[in-house]
Every structure is written in C-alpha cells, then in structure tokens.
Amino acid sequence: MAITTRGFGGRRAPAEKPLPPGQFLTEDFPVLSAGPTPNVDEAHWQFSVHTESGEVRRWDWAALMAMPVEDVTTDIHCVTRWSRFDTQWRGVSVDAFFEDVESEAEFVMVHSYGGYTTNLPLEDLLDGKAWIAFEHGGEPLAPLHGGPVRLIVPHLYFWKSAKWVRGFVMQEHEEPGFWEQNGYHLYGDPWLEQRYA
C-alpha cells in the first residue's frame, strides 16, 4: 500500500529555470512509500558494496562520518510529477565508497532496509552524480524521507534515490528493481519523461 502526504499543490516554474516535461513545482516535500517506514537508528545502520567477485566492503555510522562530507544543492523530480528546486543535502559522494572497490560490473542493484530495490548503471552513481545523504535542509534526514541515510541521484526521477539505503550489489547485467518490475522505466530520465516501461 502506498503512503502519501500533502504537498501536491503546485505551480509553474519561474521562467529562468525550466522544469522537465509534465512536472509542476512545489515547495513541500511529499512523502511516497511503497510500504511502512523502516526503523533504523544510526547505531545499527550499515552500508556495504558487494562486488561480482564476492568481495564485500562495509561501513558503519562512525566510518560514514569520517568520510569526506559534501554540501549539495540540487533540484529533484518525482515520477508522480512534482519537482522541488534547490533542495539542500549533506552527505558523502558515492565516488568515495568506490575508491578501493575493484569491479568490472556496469550495473548496480541498490538495496534498502525494508526490502526496497532499484537498479542503476554504475556510471550514473560516479563522477559526482550521486551521494549517500544523511541531512536535508540542515537537519538530520527524517525517517519518512529515508533517514538515517538515503541515496540521492538527482538527474533521474526520485524513485532511483532509494530511501533507507543499506548497500549496493554490483551486477554484470541489468535487472529491474522494485518499481521497475512493476512497470516503471528501467532508467528514469525526467527530461525524456521516462516514467513507465
């Protein structure tokens, strides 16, 4: 069952900043989830990268906090047609998690606490395109918005920015995640309006 909150009243974008096709602008932060919100505290949170060779790298909360932190201001676009401009996040670039990871795989399955998954090409996570975020708007990331930690991939529809993220599994071939198995597009570029398969 999907869970939603208010925030679907919108307006057109200012003329100086375009919106992807079919989107409306909101200043709220609507909540959409496919199930209940997992209860994951910082003391028990872990993140891992599993390679196709079986290698596993793990980080706990202390290790995450010791990594280089970045402040990111970016627009986000939800497949349900809302967009927010200039959202503010704090987190660690996904690049930092791959510094010592050896993999020839071209795809990643993102796994979340609660069982959610989404698929991404690895190139869409690297080169400053994605972050593991733990703050939004200067505050710790609320559980309803994916806290304590979520993935941020702002150039794709926001379902690719998995809430409650706990790991990446490297894959040699692309496989669909949760929403992709249920009719969403495999890639999800908002500028090409890749909403559904």
TrEMBL record:
| Chain segments carrying region Disordered | 1-21
Pfam families cross-referenced by the UniProt entry = Oxidored_molyb (PF00174)
Domain of life of the native organism: Bacteria
Tell me which InterPro entries the record gives: OxRdtase_Mopterin-bd_dom, OxRdtase_Mopterin-bd_sf
- Tell me which Gene3D superfamilies the record gives: Oxidoreductase, molybdopterin-binding domain (3.90.420.10)
Oxidoreductase molybdopterin-binding domain location: 35-179
Q: Which SUPFAM superfamilies does the record match to this protein?
A: Oxidoreductase molybdopterin-binding domain
Protein name, entry field: Oxidoreductase molybdopterin binding domain-containing protein
Q: Which organism is it from?
A: Paraoerskovia marina
